[in-house]
């Protein structure tokens, strides 16, 4: 259910913290990778050893490890996560979240997180009903935080009323529902994605091509489809399986890719141009295999059509995203492509960066738009795809 999802589980100082252990186990069993952030007080209610064992990751409490000075980067943690779940969330922590106080790692991580945030409040009934707590929760809702409602019943104080943290299974169900909601955020939209390498034939046997694996484009197509969009994937040569729920159009040459893209673009809400398209193609294609002679030979090439630029001309209100693979003057070249091809944003990957590039499963990219550049750390191509689609959603 949660396979491959990265979840930060924030635990604050409430007696309900004992339920966080069960919750952590349920999240891990559902396939999520979980990292636990605790407040100092939470450690009094449930031991870091318990949470570390169940989450299979070290517990994070302080800004840095006092033993060796190693920094627990809340920024990296925030970037890593697909969901930040704070359970239990005390009245104190919610009040701080509502006003942007950042005096512990759990809170700085909240301010850094770009992913959805959910809180499962836990407190005594009068604290829960207090106008200040209700006001803070209202504020959090306005800020986009999902509140997983507490239940009614026996409270640690001996009183009976509303304030008990939701049961771990109910929190798990709410988390799954949240991801499903995110998945369907592009229902009714249609996207064109290009991927892979084009093949420019020289004769019936040889061709000009490049090292593109198609992995980045397929990951983008998969991510769009998972969020409910109709996806037309125009693909050059790759050795990848067709992603689930995607309409595949196989092409070989840049010319065929141009035709296929222009045939569909106007019916779409946007396009992501990931393909590595040949800039030149042989002027003529020999009908028979070219025989070798004693001397050197040269092949006359002509320019191919720029598919992205042709779509840029008739873009209208559609979203258009391009890629740039540069080996020098990366930023300037990407910036000029952004303008020339009328992209909303361009994904720059430099061949000079380790972990970035053609064949691998990871990438290091910078997202550049008219307002500026956002450098992303090394992440899987699938994670890069999610970030690209997140940005498309904000533009839409
Ligand atoms: O100009 P350059 O090839 O570096 O531009 C890269 C971007 O333009 C990529 O998004 C690529 O898919 C797209 N492109 C295209 N048609 C071409 C050349 C590049 O769609 N003929």
Protein model, in words:
The structure is a single chain. By secondary structure, the chain is α/β, with parallel strands linked by helices. It folds into 2 domains: 6-183, Rossmann fold (3-Layer(aba) Sandwich), CATH 3.40.50; 190-395, Rossmann fold, CATH 3.40.50.10300. Helix content is 35%, strand content 23%. Strand 19 and strand 20 (372-375) form a beta hairpin. The longest helix is centred in the middle third of the chain and has 16 residues, at 168-183. Cytidine-5'-monophosphate is lined by residues 194, 254, 273, 275, 277, 304, 306-308, 322-324, 337.
CATH class of the largest domain: Alpha Beta
Strand content: 15-25%
As residue ranges, the low-confidence spans are none
Count of beta strands: 21
Biggest sheet strand order reads 12-11-8-13-16-17-19-20
Q: What is the CATH architecture assignment of the largest domain? A: 3-Layer(aba) Sandwich
Helix content: 25-40%
The CATH superfamily of the largest domain is identified as CoaB-like
Overall shape: elongated
The residue-averaged pLDDT reads 93
Q: With helices defined by DSSP (H or I, 4 residues minimum), what is the helix count?
A: 14
Q: What distance separates the N and C termini?
A: 28 Å
- Oligomer state of the chains in this structure: single chain
Main beta sheet = 8 strands, mixed
In total, the number of domains comes to 2
Bound molecule kinds, no repeats: cytidine-5'-monophosphate
Radius of gyration: 26 Å
Q: What's the quick description here?
A:
With 396 residues, the protein is α/β, with parallel strands linked by helices. It is built from 14 helices and 21 strands.
